[in-house]
Amino acid sequence: MATDDAPLRLDERIPDLGFDGPDAMLDCFLDWVLEQGIEPYPHQEEAFLELFQGHHVVLATPTGSGKSLVALAQHFKTFAELGRTWYTAPIKALVSEKFFSLCKVFGAEHVGMMTGDGAINRDAPIMCCTAEILANLALREGRDARVDSVVMDEFHYYADRDRGMAWQIPLLTLPQAQFLLMSATLGDTTAIREDLEARTGRKAALVDSAHRPVPLEYEYSMRPIHESIDVLVRGGKAPVYVVHFSQREATEQARALMSVNYCSSEEKAAIARAVKGFRFDSPFGRHMERFVKHGVGLHHAGLLPRYRLLVEKLAQQGLLKVICGTDTLGVGINVPIRTVLFTKLCKFDGEKVDLLTRRDFKQIAGRAGRAGYDDVGYVVVQAPAHVIENARVDGRVKDPRKRRKIRKAQPPTRGYKHWDEEIFRQLVERPPERLEPRFTVDHGRLLTLMQHAEESCGDAGRGVDDLLRLIAESHVPRKERERLEAEVAELLEGLIAAGIATRDGDRIRLDPNLQRDFSLYHSLSLFLVEALSVLDPEAADFHLDVLTWVEAILENPRPVLLRQADRERGRAIAAMKAQGIPYEERMEAIENISWPKPHAEQIYAMLDVYAETHPWVSGEAIRPKSVAREMVEGYRGFSDYVSELRVEHSEGVLLRYLTEVYKALLQNVPETLHTDGLLDVIGYLRAMLGRVDSSLVTEWETLLAGGEVGPEAPRPVDISLNTRLFHARIRAELHAIVRALSQRDWEEAASCARGDWTAEDFEAALEPFVDAYGDVAFDHRARLAQNTRIEQTGPHRWTVRQTLLARLSVYGDADATGYEDLDDEVAWELEGRVDLTEDTNPDGPLVEVVRIGE
Fold first, then answer.
1. pLDDT at 563
2. With contact defined as beta carbons under 8 Å apart, do 238 and 373 qualify?
């Protein structure tokens, strides 16, 4: 890959008049590769030759064998031919990583990115996107799409039960494109290659002859897991990634490793220097700090993004000896490791507990061993814990008669399917399973094709024919095709019954007012707008009710909701106990208690009406809940709410959910409904996200604005342009500081502000106030708009002031109507500044405290 000191970017190697032919093009690319200090492997050269001859390539080579360089060759070839080339991956993180990589090689002006959140440089000749983005484009435009070549990364997702169709659609609908299909775990691809050749007229070459640059050694371990880890670390096989199949198990393992020293005092000192200044200030942060300073990492989706990124950085620096994580390792997280240790070979697949597939096993195991660092990678699989325990007991008792009398340890009764060394050997030695094609039809796909057909030839019925032809040409078995064809007929009749489509002689017409985007998210967004139109903006709870409707269209943050339900049941039991209700009746009464669902009946009723004319939206799509609303009503801080519900292990889930709420409020609620109360809600959420972990929301805001993203990239987003939203965020930050002061939580106050003020500074500044008036108030009086003043003092500079009030107890038995007069006696304020001259969308808080006093 190109480095910052490369003599020329690849785009600058192309002559003004282009190349004389593919051979000259290939020579230019190989010269550039050699200048980077890279000596291509034979399989890479084989793939280069096939690609530059215009052939499709199925690249089935091991992890770490240089598939990225082959992908770069495909992009260069198409770019040099003035075509448009696309890179697709299953997750946004891989898309983003590839986007930045290609920007360095081809220049940011030539590279674009599209995800569900937004787009950057959407007309660029080199595009990076999630697989679904390209599939939707291919479905709409087919051979007319500006797609000259496609690099499909992680192509084994073709067999994914839920998403596999997104990898198949481009193969069926883009005959003009040259394909590079890449994965380390493809299995037999004969049928796919033969179909691709027949459909496009190009040869489809298989390149699968590569040997792993770093060979793997396999072991089946009959030692207890703590001994296995100890042997691996002491034997120089660290860093060790310990694979678990639940976040809870990964966290428990990390905690168990605290009793063993894997790092020397010098190594721990190096870790301490590396994390100096890092904020471990969330409820789970104290655990995370203990883990990493002990040389143990934790990595799973329930963590805040900044904690996961910290673990990746420390691992890259070679500072962590053990990382406990989930099987997300198989999707290419950026953690260099020498050894992969499987704690088990079974997992819950969404329906039942089953053994790992050979593909999943190889995908995870393939992450062991780092090219350029390791000569060998190691894969260790633990035998079942009860098998290990029984074997140890048998080894200690030599007398067969006594051995028969010993009570054996039993396998788990839940979450377990047995594996043994023979199953382990099969996973190692046998190739991945054949890729099973996936194909589904729904209203959205049918309507997309019908609209395209009506626009092109005036007959939406041609779109039905197009979908039937797509099914007939798909890779699924004949019986499945017959079932899908019958399903299309049912969908069409449903559209006609709903009045969305009508028969006009031999033609089919669509309602001219029909929406353009039939994704579930977009359809629910339209439902939201329709539902909000019946609310009264003058109502006192309007902002809270908007929040309730927004939450209803979002995915459930399940760990948070389960804790809410536990809390509600606990409260109900306590109330019934106080009333003397018998135990059996109490238990029966709580069976139907769930998490809070404000306005649930009204929401379901409105969806039923909406679904009559939008049959592609099912009742399951709506999920009433009250997470953000509950936090706003109580003006809770993130850490307080996490601690209250005891969801420390799922902080990342709550953060992602609140980010989605914030995004939906900005994207899907019309600005005409942005009352002052709703703006305060938006400001409250944005301030909280900036305080806890701004990585997710900052990247989204930048994508929305079409700018560049990333830790080193400039951020052209100017958050001050929307004055009302900007002021709402500043108010929310000032309120967060006041809230912390009211609780005498000086550390929290310091973390809510920008700049150098420490906890000690806040405590010292408030001491005279506390001596004279007692604690600072944080109630509805403190949050009144009149107590916050924002004044612009220059370009991108503001002075802010927040009046500090005393708690009512200082006034004795004062009548509530006399608040204003009484508050005049406490003439204290917090003065701060906001400076966006250097960065118009900074990470973290905006307000820098200048002084607190009279």
1. 96
2. no
Query: Helix, strand or coil for residue 846?
Result: coil
Measured CA distances, 364 to 157, 772, 851 (Å): 14, 63, 54
Chain mean position to CA 578: 44
Q: What are the strands, taking DSSP E only, across 442-542? A: 501-504, 507-510
| CA 412-417-421 angle, 5° bins | 105
Q: For residues 460 and 467, what is the distance between their CA atoms, to the nearest angstrom? A: 11
- Write down the mean pLDDT value for the chain: 89
Are 625 and 553 in contact by the 8 Å Cβ rule? The answer is: no
HSE value, Cβ hemisphere, 13 Å, CA-based, for 219: 17
CA 146 remoteness from chain centre? 29
Q: Kind and range of the H or E element at 341?
A: strand 339-342
Q: Are strands 828-835 and 848-853 parallel, antiparallel or unpaired?
A: antiparallel
Strands 339-342 and 353-355: unpaired
Cross-strand pairs, 734: none
**pLDDT tens digit sequence for 472-494:** 999 999 999 999 999 999 989 88
The residues with which 504 forms a beta bridge, in sequence order, are 507
Residue range 554-609, pLDDT digits in tens: 999 999 999 999 999 999 999 999 999 999 889 988 988 999 999 999 999 999 88
The first and second tokens of residue 206, run together, are 């298989």
Please report how the helices 305-316 and 695-705 are oriented relative to each other, as an axis angle in degrees rounded to 10: 100
Q: What is the pLDDT of residue 726?
A: 92
Q: Quick one: three-class SS letters along 683-740?
A: HHHHHHHHHHCCHHHHHHHHHHHCCCCCCCCCCCCCCCCCHHHHHHHHHHHHHHHHHH
DSSP β-ladder status, 788-794 and 322-326? unpaired
Residues of the chain with CATH 3.40.50.300: 10-207, 216-429
Q: State the Cα–Cα distance between residues 156 and 332, nearest whole angstrom.
A: 13
Looking at the chain, the whole-number percentage of residues with pLDDT higher than 70 is 92
State which fold the 727-853 domain adopts: Nuclear Transport Factor 2; Chain: A, (3.10.450)
Q: Cα separation of 557 and 847, whole Å?
A: 30
Report CA torsion sign: 497, 499, 500, 506.
positive
Q: What is the pTM of this model?
A: 0.83
CATH annotation of 10-207: 3.40.50.300
216-429, what's its fold?
A: Rossmann fold (3.40.50)
Question: For residue 413, what are the CA distances in angstroms to 353, 386, 410, 417?
Answer: 11, 12, 8, 9
- DSSP H helices, 182-284, are 190-200, 225-234, 247-256, 265-274
pLDDT of residue 697: 74
Instruction: Answer for the pair 655, 662: CB distance below 8 angstroms, yes or no.
Output: no
Phi, psi for residue 659 in degrees, rounded to 5: -65, -40
